[in-house]
Known about the structure:
Its main location: membrane. The protein is mostly helical. The chain contains 13 helices and no strands. It folds into 2 domains: 40-70; 75-288, MetI-like fold (Orthogonal Bundle), CATH 1.10.3720. Helix content is 80%, strand content 0%. It is globular and about 75 Å long.
Amino acid sequence: MTGQSAGQVSSPSSVETRAGGAAAQGGAVQQAVPPKPNALLAFLKRRKLVLMTLVVILVAWELAPRLLAIPDYLLPPPSQVFTAFLGQWQRTLAATWITTSVMLGGYLIAIVVSIPLALAIVSSRVVEDTVEPIMLVFQVIPKIAIAPLFIVWFGFGYTPKTMLVFLLAFFPITLSAVAGFRAVDPDIMDLARSTGTSTWTMFRKIKLPQALPQIFTGLKVGVALASTGAVVAEFIASDRGLGYLLLEWRGELDTPMVFAGVFVISLVGIVVYYIVEAIERFTIPWHVSQRDPVPMNA
Length: 298
């Protein structure tokens, strides 16, 4: 009994060794799970060079009119632009909402039409031979040149402006979606068919995921064109909206408010662009375009 008890009782050194190993293992487990970085801080870190460049530009812009004696009606400093905006911010934001609704309306219609049409072009030779030449003709026609026709057909109001935004955003989204669907590996599709996979499952699991990177490229290009199209449409056929106010401010030589209007509509376009980019990061986190760049000294 004495020998058996002695064999069962562990020495203090062995207990300390096991305790130290367990603590080290626990510490390793804790170190293996890094803290989740704040999304805003991560975004600012990725864009720090851009933000620093913007600060330098704003400072240089603020100093240039003062040092070079440039008249305010030619190049007002940012401080004057901000002061002018504060004096008309309610009117400006109300007009911005009208322009944003036109922009988003045409952009969303372009998405709804473009992606199914691209899939039909890739899936059917008849649709491809019929639709692609027509798309090519419409692509080379200047969209601003046919804007007066929209006024004749639809009159003034929401519809002609939305149609112009739709046409500007439609073509890059469609062409990118067609390129994405055509880039699907045919060997993977043949393998899926040989295993009896349904058409819907192949589209959902193979075709769409592989085409999404190209589709999102077209969506981001379409955002910029939609923002431009909304303002230009209001130049041509509108009595309200930010484009209309820009024409009014230009006629009054209110250059600070012209700059303010340009900044506001640019901000709207940037916000929508980053919303699309956030959806892209959430949808295709596995794609190489979503990986963080590797430092050169790593």
